[in-house]
Write the C-alpha coordinates for this entry.
Amino acid sequence: MKVLLYFESEELIKTSGIGRAFKHQKMALSLAGVQYTTDSWSEDYDILHINTYGLNSDMMIAKARTLNKKIIYHAHSTEEDFKNSFVLSNQIAPIFKKRIVSLYSKADAIITPTPYSKKLLESYNINLPIYSISNGINLERFNYDEEKIKAYRKYFSLSEDDKIILSVGLFFERKGILDFFEVAKMLPEYKFIWFGDTPLISVPKKIREAVENVPNNVLLPGYVKGPIIDGAYLDAECFFFPSYEETEGIVVLEALASKQQVLIRDIGVFDPWLINKENCYKGNNNLEFVNLIRKIVNKEIKDTREAGRKVAEDRSIEVVGQELKKVYEEVLSFGN
Protein backbone atom coordinates (compact mmCIF):
# COMPACT_ATOMS: atom_id res chain seq x y z
CA MET A 1 0.00 0.00 0.00
CA LYS A 2 1.37 3.38 -1.05
CA VAL A 3 -0.21 6.80 -0.58
CA LEU A 4 0.27 10.01 -2.56
CA LEU A 5 -0.09 12.88 -0.10
CA TYR A 6 -1.03 15.98 -2.07
CA PHE A 7 -0.80 19.54 -0.79
CA GLU A 8 -1.10 22.36 -3.30
CA SER A 9 0.79 25.66 -2.85
CA GLU A 10 2.54 24.39 0.27
CA GLU A 11 4.84 27.39 0.59
CA LEU A 12 1.89 29.80 0.79
CA ILE A 13 0.04 28.11 3.62
CA LYS A 14 2.64 25.94 5.37
CA THR A 15 2.32 27.98 8.60
CA SER A 16 -1.47 27.54 8.75
CA GLY A 17 -3.32 24.79 10.58
CA ILE A 18 -3.67 22.88 7.28
CA GLY A 19 0.07 23.18 6.75
CA ARG A 20 0.80 21.72 10.16
CA ALA A 21 -1.77 18.97 9.58
CA PHE A 22 0.08 17.98 6.39
CA LYS A 23 3.36 17.82 8.30
CA HIS A 24 1.66 15.63 10.92
CA GLN A 25 0.31 13.30 8.21
CA LYS A 26 3.82 12.63 6.93
CA MET A 27 5.08 11.93 10.44
CA ALA A 28 2.07 9.72 11.22
CA LEU A 29 2.45 7.57 8.11
CA SER A 30 6.17 7.11 8.71
CA LEU A 31 5.51 5.94 12.27
CA ALA A 32 2.73 3.61 11.08
CA GLY A 33 4.96 2.06 8.43
CA VAL A 34 2.79 3.30 5.55
CA GLN A 35 4.75 4.08 2.42
CA TYR A 36 3.99 7.49 0.91
CA THR A 37 5.15 10.00 -1.68
CA THR A 38 4.55 13.74 -2.10
CA ASP A 39 5.60 13.66 -5.76
CA SER A 40 2.51 14.88 -7.62
CA TRP A 41 3.88 13.45 -10.89
CA SER A 42 4.10 9.95 -9.48
CA GLU A 43 1.82 7.22 -10.79
CA ASP A 44 3.20 4.62 -8.37
CA TYR A 45 0.60 4.78 -5.59
CA ASP A 46 -2.68 3.21 -4.52
CA ILE A 47 -4.48 6.09 -2.79
CA LEU A 48 -4.50 9.83 -3.48
CA HIS A 49 -4.88 11.61 -0.11
CA ILE A 50 -5.60 15.21 -1.05
CA ASN A 51 -5.55 18.16 1.36
CA THR A 52 -6.18 21.33 -0.64
CA TYR A 53 -8.72 23.00 -2.93
CA GLY A 54 -6.75 24.84 -5.63
CA LEU A 55 -7.13 24.51 -9.39
CA ASN A 56 -4.56 21.71 -9.55
CA SER A 57 -6.71 19.63 -7.20
CA ASP A 58 -9.22 18.97 -10.01
CA MET A 59 -6.41 17.76 -12.26
CA MET A 60 -5.00 15.50 -9.57
CA ILE A 61 -8.41 13.91 -9.04
CA ALA A 62 -8.98 13.44 -12.78
CA LYS A 63 -5.55 11.85 -13.18
CA ALA A 64 -6.14 9.53 -10.23
CA ARG A 65 -9.47 8.42 -11.69
CA THR A 66 -7.80 7.74 -15.06
CA LEU A 67 -5.24 5.61 -13.26
CA ASN A 68 -8.01 3.82 -11.32
CA LYS A 69 -6.67 4.96 -7.95
CA LYS A 70 -8.69 5.41 -4.77
CA ILE A 71 -9.19 8.99 -3.58
CA ILE A 72 -9.51 10.31 -0.03
CA TYR A 73 -10.24 13.98 0.51
CA HIS A 74 -9.08 15.52 3.77
CA ALA A 75 -11.81 18.03 4.64
CA HIS A 76 -9.95 20.67 6.63
CA SER A 77 -12.38 23.42 5.68
CA THR A 78 -16.10 24.11 5.87
CA GLU A 79 -18.26 27.06 4.88
CA GLU A 80 -18.62 27.86 8.57
CA ASP A 81 -14.90 28.28 9.24
CA PHE A 82 -14.33 30.18 5.99
CA LYS A 83 -16.60 32.98 7.18
CA ASN A 84 -15.29 35.94 9.20
CA SER A 85 -11.74 35.50 7.94
CA PHE A 86 -10.49 37.42 4.90
CA VAL A 87 -11.96 40.49 3.23
CA LEU A 88 -15.30 39.52 1.57
CA SER A 89 -15.12 36.00 3.04
CA ASN A 90 -18.77 36.12 4.13
CA GLN A 91 -19.91 37.12 0.64
CA ILE A 92 -17.73 34.47 -0.99
CA ALA A 93 -18.62 31.72 1.52
CA PRO A 94 -21.58 30.22 -0.45
CA ILE A 95 -19.34 29.95 -3.54
CA PHE A 96 -16.58 28.40 -1.45
CA LYS A 97 -19.07 25.85 -0.10
CA LYS A 98 -20.11 24.83 -3.63
CA ARG A 99 -16.45 24.45 -4.54
CA ILE A 100 -15.51 22.22 -1.61
CA VAL A 101 -18.68 20.13 -1.87
CA SER A 102 -17.92 19.55 -5.56
CA LEU A 103 -14.36 18.49 -4.76
CA TYR A 104 -15.19 16.39 -1.71
CA SER A 105 -17.91 14.56 -3.65
CA LYS A 106 -15.37 13.33 -6.22
CA ALA A 107 -13.57 11.24 -3.60
CA ASP A 108 -14.22 7.67 -2.44
CA ALA A 109 -14.13 8.77 1.20
CA ILE A 110 -13.53 11.82 3.36
CA ILE A 111 -11.43 12.35 6.46
CA THR A 112 -12.15 15.32 8.73
CA PRO A 113 -10.66 16.20 12.14
CA THR A 114 -13.63 16.06 14.54
CA PRO A 115 -17.13 14.66 15.04
CA TYR A 116 -18.33 18.27 14.74
CA SER A 117 -16.83 18.83 11.29
CA LYS A 118 -18.11 15.38 10.25
CA LYS A 119 -21.62 16.45 11.22
CA LEU A 120 -21.29 19.68 9.21
CA LEU A 121 -20.18 17.76 6.12
CA GLU A 122 -23.07 15.34 6.48
CA SER A 123 -25.40 18.35 6.52
CA TYR A 124 -24.02 19.26 3.06
CA ASN A 125 -25.61 16.06 1.71
CA ILE A 126 -22.30 14.49 0.74
CA ASN A 127 -23.11 10.81 0.34
CA LEU A 128 -19.71 9.30 1.06
CA PRO A 129 -18.11 7.56 4.03
CA ILE A 130 -16.79 10.27 6.36
CA TYR A 131 -14.18 9.41 8.98
CA SER A 132 -13.31 11.60 11.97
CA ILE A 133 -9.55 11.53 12.66
CA SER A 134 -7.69 14.20 14.61
CA ASN A 135 -4.91 16.17 12.90
CA GLY A 136 -2.76 14.84 15.71
CA ILE A 137 -0.02 16.28 17.87
CA ASN A 138 3.72 15.68 18.20
CA LEU A 139 3.87 15.15 21.96
CA GLU A 140 7.66 15.13 22.18
CA ARG A 141 7.90 18.74 21.00
CA PHE A 142 5.79 19.90 23.96
CA ASN A 143 7.50 18.02 26.77
CA TYR A 144 8.83 20.24 29.57
CA ASP A 145 12.06 21.98 28.55
CA GLU A 146 13.72 24.52 30.82
CA GLU A 147 15.91 25.87 28.00
CA LYS A 148 12.88 26.68 25.86
CA ILE A 149 11.30 28.52 28.76
CA LYS A 150 14.46 30.53 29.33
CA ALA A 151 14.64 31.43 25.63
CA TYR A 152 11.01 32.60 25.62
CA ARG A 153 11.33 34.67 28.79
CA LYS A 154 14.53 36.30 27.54
CA TYR A 155 12.96 37.06 24.14
CA PHE A 156 10.11 39.00 25.78
CA SER A 157 12.23 40.38 28.67
CA LEU A 158 9.76 38.99 31.20
CA SER A 159 10.12 39.55 34.94
CA GLU A 160 9.24 36.98 37.60
CA ASP A 161 6.09 38.94 38.39
CA ASP A 162 4.71 39.01 34.83
CA LYS A 163 1.58 36.92 34.31
CA ILE A 164 1.16 35.83 30.70
CA ILE A 165 -2.05 35.02 28.85
CA LEU A 166 -1.26 33.29 25.57
CA SER A 167 -3.03 32.73 22.28
CA VAL A 168 -2.02 31.61 18.79
CA GLY A 169 -3.79 32.18 15.49
CA LEU A 170 -4.29 34.20 12.34
CA PHE A 171 -5.65 37.75 12.55
CA PHE A 172 -9.23 36.64 11.83
CA GLU A 173 -12.40 37.84 13.51
CA ARG A 174 -13.45 34.19 13.61
CA LYS A 175 -10.46 33.44 15.83
CA GLY A 176 -11.79 35.81 18.49
CA ILE A 177 -8.92 38.27 18.22
CA LEU A 178 -11.17 41.27 18.95
CA ASP A 179 -12.38 39.59 22.14
CA PHE A 180 -8.77 38.81 23.06
CA PHE A 181 -7.99 42.54 22.89
CA GLU A 182 -11.12 43.48 24.86
CA VAL A 183 -10.34 40.98 27.61
CA ALA A 184 -6.78 42.33 27.75
CA LYS A 185 -8.18 45.83 28.31
CA MET A 186 -10.18 44.53 31.25
CA LEU A 187 -7.13 42.80 32.74
CA PRO A 188 -4.36 45.43 32.55
CA GLU A 189 -2.42 43.67 35.33
CA TYR A 190 -1.56 40.78 32.96
CA LYS A 191 0.38 40.61 29.70
CA PHE A 192 -1.34 39.11 26.67
CA ILE A 193 0.67 37.58 23.83
CA TRP A 194 -0.91 36.59 20.49
CA PHE A 195 1.43 34.58 18.24
CA GLY A 196 0.57 34.56 14.56
CA ASP A 197 0.36 36.87 11.59
CA THR A 198 -1.82 37.69 8.60
CA PRO A 199 -1.19 40.31 5.89
CA LEU A 200 -3.33 43.22 7.07
CA ILE A 201 -4.37 44.08 3.53
CA SER A 202 -6.23 40.74 3.42
CA VAL A 203 -8.41 41.28 6.53
CA PRO A 204 -11.36 43.66 7.12
CA LYS A 205 -10.79 47.25 8.23
CA LYS A 206 -11.93 46.68 11.83
CA ILE A 207 -9.31 43.94 12.25
CA ARG A 208 -6.57 46.09 10.70
CA GLU A 209 -7.42 48.99 13.00
CA ALA A 210 -7.57 46.76 16.07
CA VAL A 211 -4.19 45.18 15.31
CA GLU A 212 -2.62 48.59 14.70
CA ASN A 213 -3.99 49.96 18.00
CA VAL A 214 -3.63 47.14 20.52
CA PRO A 215 -3.90 47.75 24.28
CA ASN A 216 -0.61 48.53 26.04
CA ASN A 217 -0.48 45.10 27.66
CA VAL A 218 -0.80 43.16 24.36
CA LEU A 219 2.21 41.86 22.43
CA LEU A 220 1.98 40.73 18.80
CA PRO A 221 5.29 39.04 17.95
CA GLY A 222 4.02 37.69 14.62
CA TYR A 223 4.78 34.21 13.33
CA VAL A 224 7.45 32.71 15.59
CA LYS A 225 8.55 29.08 15.63
CA GLY A 226 10.98 27.01 17.65
CA PRO A 227 11.89 27.44 21.31
CA ILE A 228 10.25 30.87 21.71
CA ILE A 229 6.67 29.76 21.07
CA ASP A 230 7.29 26.32 22.61
CA GLY A 231 8.55 28.03 25.75
CA ALA A 232 5.47 30.24 25.83
CA TYR A 233 3.21 27.19 25.65
CA LEU A 234 5.13 25.62 28.54
CA ASP A 235 5.33 28.66 30.80
CA ALA A 236 2.30 30.94 30.34
CA GLU A 237 -0.35 31.11 33.05
CA CYS A 238 -3.22 30.44 30.66
CA PHE A 239 -3.83 29.55 27.02
CA PHE A 240 -6.87 31.62 26.04
CA PHE A 241 -8.51 30.71 22.72
CA PRO A 242 -11.78 32.61 22.17
CA SER A 243 -12.37 31.29 18.63
CA TYR A 244 -15.93 31.20 17.31
CA GLU A 245 -15.45 28.41 14.75
CA GLU A 246 -12.89 25.64 14.10
CA THR A 247 -12.71 22.23 12.48
CA GLU A 248 -10.40 21.15 15.33
CA GLY A 249 -7.91 23.80 16.44
CA ILE A 250 -4.38 22.36 16.33
CA VAL A 251 -3.15 25.14 18.62
CA VAL A 252 -5.52 23.86 21.31
CA LEU A 253 -3.92 20.42 21.01
CA GLU A 254 -0.51 22.08 21.30
CA ALA A 255 -1.57 23.87 24.48
CA LEU A 256 -3.03 20.68 25.96
CA ALA A 257 0.16 18.77 25.14
CA SER A 258 2.15 21.51 26.91
CA LYS A 259 0.08 21.02 30.07
CA GLN A 260 -1.38 24.49 29.77
CA GLN A 261 -4.44 25.68 31.64
CA VAL A 262 -6.70 25.97 28.60
CA LEU A 263 -9.61 28.40 28.35
CA ILE A 264 -11.77 28.18 25.23
CA ARG A 265 -15.08 29.44 23.97
CA ASP A 266 -17.90 26.95 24.47
CA ILE A 267 -18.51 26.00 20.82
CA GLY A 268 -19.58 22.80 19.09
CA VAL A 269 -16.21 21.70 17.73
CA PHE A 270 -14.89 21.04 21.24
CA ASP A 271 -17.69 18.61 22.10
CA PRO A 272 -17.50 15.91 23.32
CA TRP A 273 -13.72 15.66 23.66
CA LEU A 274 -13.10 18.78 25.75
CA ILE A 275 -15.07 18.87 28.99
CA ASN A 276 -15.53 22.03 31.03
CA LYS A 277 -13.86 21.92 34.47
CA GLU A 278 -12.35 18.51 33.70
CA ASN A 279 -9.68 18.96 30.99
CA CYS A 280 -10.20 22.66 30.21
CA TYR A 281 -12.37 25.65 31.05
CA LYS A 282 -15.06 27.06 28.79
CA GLY A 283 -16.63 30.51 28.65
CA ASN A 284 -19.36 32.16 26.60
CA ASN A 285 -18.54 35.87 26.75
CA ASN A 286 -15.82 38.32 27.71
CA LEU A 287 -17.02 38.83 31.29
CA GLU A 288 -16.87 35.07 31.85
CA PHE A 289 -13.42 34.95 30.27
CA VAL A 290 -12.14 37.74 32.55
CA ASN A 291 -13.49 35.98 35.63
CA LEU A 292 -12.02 32.61 34.60
CA ILE A 293 -8.60 34.04 33.70
CA ARG A 294 -8.33 35.70 37.11
CA LYS A 295 -9.25 32.44 38.84
CA ILE A 296 -6.80 30.44 36.72
CA VAL A 297 -3.93 32.86 37.35
CA ASN A 298 -4.68 32.95 41.09
CA LYS A 299 -5.13 29.16 41.21
CA GLU A 300 -8.60 29.49 42.67
CA ILE A 301 -10.12 26.74 40.51
CA LYS A 302 -9.30 23.13 39.67
CA ASP A 303 -6.05 22.43 37.81
CA THR A 304 -6.97 20.69 34.52
CA ARG A 305 -3.49 20.40 33.03
CA GLU A 306 -2.83 16.68 33.54
CA ALA A 307 -6.28 15.76 32.20
CA GLY A 308 -5.66 18.06 29.24
CA ARG A 309 -2.37 16.33 28.46
CA LYS A 310 -4.24 13.00 28.38
CA VAL A 311 -6.55 14.42 25.68
CA ALA A 312 -3.47 15.28 23.62
CA GLU A 313 -1.97 11.82 24.20
CA ASP A 314 -5.13 10.23 22.80
CA ARG A 315 -4.47 12.26 19.61
CA SER A 316 -0.75 11.65 19.32
CA ILE A 317 0.93 11.30 15.93
CA GLU A 318 1.37 7.58 16.65
CA VAL A 319 -2.36 7.10 17.29
CA VAL A 320 -3.31 9.11 14.20
CA GLY A 321 -0.95 7.05 12.03
CA GLN A 322 -2.72 3.83 12.99
CA GLU A 323 -6.13 5.42 12.40
CA LEU A 324 -5.11 6.64 8.93
CA LYS A 325 -3.71 3.21 8.08
CA LYS A 326 -7.00 1.56 9.04
CA VAL A 327 -9.01 3.96 6.84
CA TYR A 328 -6.64 3.45 3.90
CA GLU A 329 -7.06 -0.33 4.15
CA GLU A 330 -10.83 0.03 4.33
CA VAL A 331 -11.00 2.37 1.33
CA LEU A 332 -8.78 0.05 -0.72
CA SER A 333 -11.32 -2.71 -0.10
CA PHE A 334 -14.18 -0.64 -1.58
CA GLY A 335 -15.58 -2.31 -4.68
CA ASN A 336 -13.62 -5.49 -4.13
Observations:
- The chain is about 45% helix and 15% strand.
